[in-house]
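Tokens for chain A. Residues wanted.
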């Protein structure tokens, strides 16, 4: 059975060359076929997130911009008008399958700043829980050159990392990874499976001939991000109608396989790569609940030390200050102090807003062995 069928949470990256035709119009037949495939995935219980390009390509035509290189301000203006049309096209097409669409615009800073990262992740988790299909693009209208991804391959990988997706598909104008550029070297060897990103594999991306802003180099950079997060990734041909169906029926593509599952990889990152900024002391009941795999609720916290922000790592200790675990706090130290010992129904009256029920969700918590 193809890995695509067994995916639980699937991220699809769609490039401009697939979605927008040479006249700057959305390729409706192709988009209709893709959305048919997405509906099949949703019908069998899979969660689907789309990372799409195309806003600038669509918008420049409607603003009368030429075909040459654009200045940054022209590109941002094109993105602003093109994004509306792009989002509407997805909404209109998926509505035929009774699927709701949600638009999110992200920058590189949103995936690196812990507070923004956590806010974006919580929004995506909520949308998926409610059955929506998030459609994500880079926020070209506000991003500067210093905080841009520059391509949506890496954005898609960061999104997969953010939401602990188990499968990422990068649709391309080539059917996978080759040992050399197959358009120039007839002896180029197709690579169907990659278990590790070795220097030899990365060297194959030198001049792949792939069109678009990403190319094979950025696709392998995306693979490195995805694999580190425990997410398998495929580079697959996107030009055929129903590209997901083609993959399911055995169409040629390259699969990159991670060494760890998504949640385990995430917890390894929390345990080994994040510097704690504070401490939460818990009572005996909370300690027992955490040992059984539960989340940390404010009702079980008896003290808060440090000056941390939402999304920062904190150490969890028991009343004798023995380490219990480490995790990412859903609240700042200031707000945590106001809700410790309380039930979730009290949060809104105390804080002025209703936040998560957990001060640390179990998926963001690593328990000491």
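Reply:
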């Amino acid at each position: 059975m193809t890995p695509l069928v067994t995916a639980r949470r699937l991220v699809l990256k769609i490039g401009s060359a697939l979605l927008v035709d040479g006249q700057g119009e959305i390729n409706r037949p192709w988009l209709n076929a893709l959305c048919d495939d997405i509906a099949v995935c949703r019908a069998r219980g899979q969660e689907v997130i789309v990372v799409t390009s195309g806003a600038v390509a669509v918008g420049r035509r409607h603003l009368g911009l030429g075909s040459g290189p654009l200045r940054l301000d022209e590109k941002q203006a094109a993105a602003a008008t093109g994004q509306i049309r792009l989002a509407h096209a997805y909404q209109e097409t998926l509505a035929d399958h009774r699927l709701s669409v949600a638009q999110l615009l992200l920058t590189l800073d949103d995936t690196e700043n812990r507070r923004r990262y956590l806010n974006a992740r919580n929004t995506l988790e909520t949308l998926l829980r409610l059955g929506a299909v998030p459609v994500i693009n880079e926020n070209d209208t506000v991003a500067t050159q210093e905080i841009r991804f520059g391509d949506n391959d890496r954005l898609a990988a960061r999104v997969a990392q953010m939401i602990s997706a188990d499968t990422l598909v990068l649709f391309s104008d080539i059917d996978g990874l080759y040992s050399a550029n197959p358009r120039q070297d007839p002896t180029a060897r197709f690579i169907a499976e990659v278990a590790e990103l070795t220097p030899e594999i990365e060297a194959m991306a030198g001049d792949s001939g792939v069109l678009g802003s990403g190319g094979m180099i950025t696709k392998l950079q995306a693979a490195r991000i995805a694999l580190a997060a425990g997410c398998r990734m495929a580079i697959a041909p996107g030009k055929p109608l129903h590209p997901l169906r083609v993959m399911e029926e055995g169409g040629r593509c390259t699969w990159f396989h991670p060494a760890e599952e998504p949640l385990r990889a995430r917890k390894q990152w929390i345990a080994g790569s994040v510097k704690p900024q504070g401490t939460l002391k818990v009572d005996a009941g909370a300690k027992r609940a955490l040992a059984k795999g539960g989340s940390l609720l404010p009702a079980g916290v008896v003290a808060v030390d440090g000056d941390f922000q939402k999304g920062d790592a904190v150490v969890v200790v028991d009343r004798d200050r023995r380490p219990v675990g480490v995790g990412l706090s859903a609240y700042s130290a200031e707000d945590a102090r106001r809700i410790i010992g309380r039930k979730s129904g009290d949060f809104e009256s105390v804080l002025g807003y209703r936040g998560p029920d957990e001060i640390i969700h179990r998926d963001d918590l690593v328990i000491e062995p």
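The chain has two domains: 3-266, 274-367. DSSP finds 15 helices and 15 strands in the chain.
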